[in-house]
Amino acid sequence: MSLQYQFPEDFWWGSATSATQIEGAANEGGKGKNIWDHWFEIEPNRFFDHVGPQETSDFYHRYQEDIQLMKKIGHNTHRLSISWSRLIPSGRGEVNPEAVEFYQHVIDDMLANDIDPFVNLYHFDMPIALQNEGGWESRDVVDAYVAYAKEAFRLFGNRVRKWFTFNEPIVPVENGYLYDAHYPNVVDAKRAVQVAYHTAIASAKAIAAFREMNIDQGKIGIILNLTPSYPRSSDPSDLRASRIADLFFNRSFLDPSVLGAYPQELINIIRENELLPQVQEGDGELLRSNTVDILGVNYYQPRRVKAKEYVPNPYSPFMPEWYFDHYQMPGRKMNIYRGWEIYEKGIYDILMNLKENYGNIESFISENGMGVQGEHRFQEKGEIQDDYRIDFIREHLKWVHQAIQEGSHVKGYHMWSFMDNWSWSNAYKNRYGFVSVDVETQERTLKKSAHWFQKVSEQNGF
Ligand code: BGP
């Protein structure tokens, strides 16, 4: 059969999840507390419907059933994360044997079902003991992270072939240190810059350790949420605003991770505003010589940018938004169920940018998907009829296909997410899964999109 959109033979079809969002069992199996457990304890009202991370989608107890579902819907790969506070409950020191056993079983079960596990080491979930020492503001915590990464490589490196140091490292910077959306709810650009810098250093050090340990045929990378920045017009002031937004939110991690250095223009802005972080001798060389093998790209929506319309008050604390404003593009297509713009071509623009400016680094789409509030209303004949999600995935895949035709080195597509899961302060508000989860009973049901995706992965196209 010839398909209009045929993907390369070894294309990775799958989905992504993260530990805190699916495992549950937050107080079981010897797990220590992380910032999410702690924040929920002290401020439950910051979470949608007051639902915290204790139970989430109970993957901890149901992983076998879930992996069978992954297999059923044609996954040949899946990205999960290890919970640092499950593996090493206090963040450093003693390893928790029950966690070792759990992750070993999960990984082995995936492999036994021909699902290649891609393992991410950090998905927003700092152990609380280390957060209390200053979290990413502390260089000692960077070392604790590297020790944790080494432990994970040592334990699972003989069977995991794809490793990732961080998921969306800019998110804890923005949400935790600029916009008061995540714990520790700090609003301070100087501290935010230090957190960002230490995260990049932590990633480079983990990569160095991985290479020293000579992990069998393994590759290591990072997962970034790349949000292409589009200027309102070709007016130089709009172009500049857009370029600066791109520097702050994309290139602040993309350049050090892939090219091994920060963009000079970003350094200049940080310096002008007296926000330079503390660095150590040898850091420059560390970043230069430990760039990633592979890049995961999370893409949901574009950023629409225009020049600032008023001069910000120079006495107000620094914010990246001193340099640009957002605007809503007239006529844009929307995911009305989540309030995010849908712009499918953005995924192609990212891949072409990687091809042209980042050495065509090996990449894959590590998250792309559609959150839907109140999704149960689309339930019919015992199944969620999520045709909107099928359209969303298909239209993005067409652009991924186009990028491949034009020489992009993109190797796979992971949908966010395998199943409905608990999301950072939004809890179960927006449903993303191929598999719907009844939060009361933990019953799993495939959505219409799951059947569609199964066919796509089996035919390697559509
Ligand atoms: C990404 C995160 C995921 C997931 C997703 C959806 O940024 O990597 O962990 O949460 O966003 O976000 P939300 O549930 O807020 O719509």
From TrEMBL:
For this record, the Gene Ontology CC terms, alphabetical, are: cytosol
Catalytic residues identified in the record: 367 (nucleophile)
Annotated keywords = Glycosidase, Hydrolase
Q: Supply the PROSITE patterns for this chain.
A: GLYCOSYL_HYDROL_F1_1
Coiled-coil boundaries: none
What Pfam families does the entry give? Glyco_hydro_1
InterPro entries (alphabetical): GH, Glyco_hydro_1, Glyco_hydro_1_AS
Q: Name one GO biological process term.
A: carbohydrate catabolic process
The keyword Protein biosynthesis belongs to this UniProt entry's keyword annotation: no
Family matches, as SUPFAM superfamilies: (Trans)glycosidases
Q: Name one GO molecular function term.
A: beta-glucosidase activity
Q: Does the keyword Hydrolase apply?
A: yes
- What's the family? Belongs to the glycosyl hydrolase 1 family.
Put simply, this protein is called Beta-glucosidase
Q: Which organism is it from?
A: Gracilibacillus halophilus YIM-C55.5
